[in-house]
Each structure stands twice: as structure tokens, then as C-alpha cells.
Amino acid sequence: MKLGILLAFIFYSGSVNAAETEESSCGTEGDVVFLLDNSGSVSKSDFKLMLGFVKDVVKKFIVSKTKVQVGLETFETGVQTEFKLGTHGNTQDVLDAVDKVSYVGGGGTNTGDALKHLRTTSFSTAFGHRAGVPKLAIVVTDGVSSYKNRTKEQARLAHNSGITVMAVGVGKSTDQVELQDIASDPDSKYLFHIDAFVGLKMIESTLASATCTKLQGLASDCAEKGAADIVFLLDSSGSVGVENFDLMKNFTKSIVDEFAIGPNAVQFGIVIFSTPVIGAFKLNQYSDREELKKAIDGIEFKDGETHTGKALEYLREHTFTRQEGYRSNPNIPKVAIVITDGHSTHKDKTKEQAQKLKEQDVEIYSIGVGNDVDEEELGNMASNKNVFRVDTFSALEHLRPLLLRQVCKAKNTCLGKSDVVFLLDSSCSVGKENFQKLKHFVSDVTYNLYIDKNGIQMGVESYECKVHTNFELNRFHNKVQMQSAINNIEYKPGGTNTGEAIKHMWTRSFSSDYGNRDNVKKIGIVITDGDSKSKATTFYEAHKARESGVTMVAIGVGDMDVEELRGIANGTDYLYTTKSYDTLRDLTKKMTALACET
């Protein structure tokens, strides 16, 4: 999972000194290219902040020919290569090269051509890209591109070529939809927005969880998310031919290479179909990757008609059974990947069997090759529009990163449906710096949540003497917009009127006017570092909140009065303490799990 580990380290820390060891740096393999907006809307001082941002990120890498390589491009009307991947073989040389980059400050914002240059040139072997090494691009811009449609198309082509793109939008002149087009999916990981260039330093820690972990690659990403039973259904009909069938087998092996294989990890099965339908081997037959790949090599091409429906039926009645090694644990996903180049012999049977598989929670991906496939049939087979098209069998390899991304991303889905309100202490004892850490914590909690009107809704209130509604439960059903709103919450110091804040929470924040849904779990999370103005009022309002059906969670930071936390929380299971705002992040998984409980 090479790409993954790098993404967790990019933006993790602002600076590193020479005394720091390699253990504190990102020493995985990866090719990283920065793409910086140098157009007329960017001032010289802001451009300097961008370069400082690049240097702070680079300091977290072990830069070498065998570890992380860094390239830098700038763009306005044209695209300028400041230095190529691999030009500089150590961190200090890269930092010195960044210092030499010149400010242009003129021209338009030709993001589309910049993305094309990124795909066709920056990540070419001629420019130093190493074959098989993950590709990561970081685009920083402050405006709308000159040609939106071209930007969207070039971003799509970049994603399809295996480049993971992180988009950072700065200021109010950016286009949120365009940033979403530029960023790789999901937006919650790869799209960020800040109000001004000075905020670049702030998002370094916000993006920590999304960086060096990504360069460790899609393989570990899936492996971390646990087990899966994956079956390939390979078309072996007469229209395919031996040569193309071999290309399908090679593609299948390239997918196998990306996963941890074994009885407690990912199991693979293969069904080939033409006039006969044959199960090549059982799901649990191979727990060693090399043995599995040898078995794939040994599968023979079978001529005949395209009996896709029979293959899907075989999958349901034989492959996904305990006798064939299928694991009945509901937390282990069942995945079927169908590759075909033509119409099925019995279209109705194909549709019927696909529907039956979907009813058994099998996630189906359909891949059509060539011009003779039936688009409607591919759509009928696939779950959730998981349809892919390529022109030739040799082009299957280009689908690998996109298919992996789709297969992996749904394996750790939060299934909860709840209304969650955070109540953040903004009193004088907190301070501006700690309040910033408090916002980062809330943003991190949202990271793994399914933010949607049919999933988890979240609101945020802050308080001192007064209570401030930052956004209501039904304000955002988009994770990226929500995280941007959290980032923009202002620190307003004052007293610690926790009682009035809790009253506002249970009477207003959890009202239908604010988006509270009937028959949905209500969770109120109070985070404070000091004694409230009136302990009696706090206890009374917390009691009223619990009485109204709100599950009250109390998090105390520092030397808090535990008695007061007990008076707020539903019980000791909902009471947490942490030494400082720096250690709040240790509670991220617990808060996420609480919101996700079904």
C-alpha cells in the first residue's frame, strides 16, 4: 500500500530539523509532483507561502532515487517545469530548488493544460517517473480555471491513468464543483479548502491522515480494511480468443498482487464462461499469492457461446457457498467482477441472475471490452453503476487503479444513522491555538462518517457566555463542505456557560427546525476544559437533555472536575478525559464508532 502511507505524511508537520531521524519521515516509495497556481490572481507574498508549504511537506519525506521523488510544476496561461522527478536526489537539494522558483504573477488559470502536462509529461519515464511506483499530484489554486470543461476532462484522464490528485482550493474565488472534479475520489480524503494562503500551514496536520498512508498503495488500503471474497468471471467465448483471454488472466493477476491473500484476508475465485461454465478453483484453495497466480496461468481458454447468465447462476449456487470456501460473516464483502466482450446468449437470464446475486449482497462490477458489448446489459448486471468500458483487452491494465479504488473504498463503510451535535468550549481558558486543535478533532471524526440526509447528520455549536450555532444538523449533506465549514469556525473567547449551551442543544439544535429526524439516535458531545459558570444549571440542563432522548457524551480536557463530567454524561461509558488538546485525536475512533452504531 505504497500510495497510502505517503498520503498520511504529506501535510503532517510544518517543519523538521536535521536532527530528526528517518523514523519520523516518510520512507516509502512514491513519485510526488506539486502543481502550483502562478496566475495573475496570486500575489507574490501568497506565492511565497505556497513555496513554504511545499518545503514543509517535502521535509517529511526521505527523498532519494529509491524512496520519494519530488517534482514541481507551476502554471498560469502556460505550464512551467521548475524541476523534474528525480532531478534532486536528497531532501536538501529539493528545498534549495524550491527556493529558486520564480514568481510570475500574470496570465490566466489554465488548469486543464496543466493537468494534461502532468499526465503526459510530468509522470513520464522521460521526466523521471519510475514504472510501478505510485503517482501523487498536489494541485494548489486560488481561482476558477479558464476552461472548465477542459479541466474536468483532463482531471478524469489523470485519474484514469492512475494519478491520485489532491486538490487544495484557496479563497472565495474557487469553484467547489471544479475542485471536486480535480480531486480523486473520495473528496473527503483528497479535497481541501481554506480561506487564505496563510491557512496552508494549518491544513498540514488536517491532511496528516490522508498522506503517507496512501503511497503505501491500494493493496494495503484494502488489506487494512479486512477480508473479502472476490470472484472474477472471465468470458471465454469464441469472440475473445486465446490471446485476449491471456490478457484477461494477466489483468486478474495484477489485481491479485494488490491484496493480502489468506483465510483471514482476501480470497479469490475464478469462473470462466462460454458454452460450459467452469469454476477454475475454490475461494479458499490458495492462501499463497504466487501459488494463486500460477493457478491463474494454468486456466485454459474454452471456446463457445457467451453464457453470462449461467455464469452468474453458477456463482450464486456454487462459488459463494461454504463448500467452495465462502465465508458467511456479514462483515466480509462478496465481490464479483465480470469481464466480457459481447452480448450474453440469454439476456433475460443474465439480468435475473444478477438481481438474485445483488439480493444476496454481492457487489457486482461489470467490465465491457470492445464495441460489441451491450451497455444496457452491463448496467443491469452492475451494482451501484459499477460499470467500466475499455476499447481493447490490452487496455484493461489502465482500469486497474480505478477498479481497485472502487472495490476498496466500500469495505469500511459506516452503517450508522444518527444526528450528532458537537458542543465546543470557546472560553478564554481554551485559547485560539487549542481551539484550532479542537476543530481538527471534530473534522477528523467526520472523516470516516457517511454524511448524508439518510446517514449521519452533524451540527456544531460553540459557546462561552453566549452560544453560537456554527451550522445546523441539516445544513450539510456533503463531507467536504462540512469540513470546510468546521475549518472556518471562529474562536470567540468568554466565560464557560456550559449549562446554557446544553439547554440550547436539547431545545434548539435537536429540534425539527434544525434538522433533527424522528426515530433517529441523538448524540450530544460536549468538549470542555474548565468548570462551568453554574454547576447546578449544567447538571439540570444535562438531565433535561438525557430525558429528551439525547445520549450525552462528556469529554474533559486537562485537569477537569470529573464530578461535573459525570453530571453531563449518560454514564461512565460516555465520559472521557484526555490530558491535553494534542491528545484529543486519541478519541477519534471512539467518537466515530459511537456515531456509527446501528
UniProtKB/TrEMBL annotation:
Pfam families named in the record: VWA (PF00092)
Matching Gene3D superfamilies: von Willebrand factor, type A domain
Database matches in InterPro entries: ECM_Assembly_Org, VWF_A, vWFA_dom_sf
Secretion signal span: 1-18
Localization terms from the record: Secreted
Keywords of the record: Glycoprotein, Repeat, Secreted, Signal
Domain VWFA: residue ranges: 31-207, 229-407, 419-591
GO (cellular component) term, any one: extracellular region
Domain of life: Eukaryota
Family annotation (SMART domains): VWA
Name the record gives this protein: Collagen alpha-1(XII) chain-like isoform X2
Provenance organism: Crassostrea virginica (Eastern oyster)
